[in-house]
Amino acid sequence: MLLCSVCRCMPVFILETFLIQHTIASWPLFTNSSVQLLGLFPDAENTTEPTDFSVHPRAMFMAAIVLAQRYGMTVDRESIGWDIAQTGGNAIGAVRSTCQKVASSDVIGIVGPAYSRETAVIAPFAESLNIPIISHAATNPSLSDRNAYPTFYRTVPSDASVTLPIVELFLRYSWKSCVIVYQNDEFGAGAVEAISDAFSDNNLVVAQLIVFDIATKKIRGDLKDLLSVTSTRIVILWTDEYHTSLVLQFALQADVLGPRFTWIMSMTISLSPFNETLRPKLIGMLTVEPVIGSVISSPYNTTLLDAAYQIWQQYEPETFPGAANVNYYALFA
């Protein structure tokens, strides 16, 4: 499910690393469990302080295992335990963490990792061990190829689903073309392919592709010059949360945001890092992002969800932000 809405500020909950390590240790360890689900969650990039994208899914994953224990759920009559690894947000870190955990315990399944660039490597590795892998945040459409990734599943919509509301938005306002700014990894490249195919099917045009290099943390070329040579004033930004903030900082410096350009982003971010005097230029941005069922009044199991929240508050109250502020990707986890 996807929601297109005016960009809004969502709070980010940051905790010191020692606090995260301490609260993980306070959860029940289930050392008597002979079968384990491995949860792979990213650290925030370029910082030792995790964000809600890392902390919230990890907490909900552990709350789900506690619920499974309380309900007596078993695999081959064995109770289910967990193991946790943090990947650093990159493929090599994900492989290293997964190999270490699989070698030391009986892992029967993997939840995560969060990023498509990690999942593209971990999914084939899991297949070689005949272990199912279910990601809560990896959205690259190519991961849906059952021949290439036969043991991969996800609880978040792929980016192929994003094309429908984007196309509808363009048709409604008679927009004919756009520029796509994307990060150069599986997440960005997969979205570019899906959007380009959908545009071609609907007589719309991708006028230009602009690359944000996640290695150098810079846009390839001068953003102002690149946008000035096109007639379109619609920019689709396909970057993850961390890189979205960086791109928007470049856009503010180049003065290519509102009202001159309309930007459509792939996720909502916090506006707090931006200079307060420059924030008016961020007004009018749109987001197209996955949302939970309750946002569109779809039915869901309130009993289990409330129980999971209570468990989170019991074992890790320092990180629980209140039910209304839980990151959507935590609920997908």
From TrEMBL:
Signal sequence extent: 1-25
Domain Receptor ligand binding region, chain residue ranges per copy: 90-290
Record's subcellular location: Membrane
Keyword Hydrolase: no
Gene Ontology MF terms: G protein-coupled receptor activity
A cellular-component GO term for this protein: membrane
A Pfam family it matches: ANF_receptor
UniProt topology in membrane: Multi-pass membrane protein
Principal localisation: membrane
Keyword Repeat among record annotations: no
Keyword line: Glycoprotein, Membrane, Receptor, Signal, Transmembrane, Transmembrane helix
Official protein name in the record: Receptor ligand binding region domain-containing protein
Organism: Adineta ricciae (Rotifer)
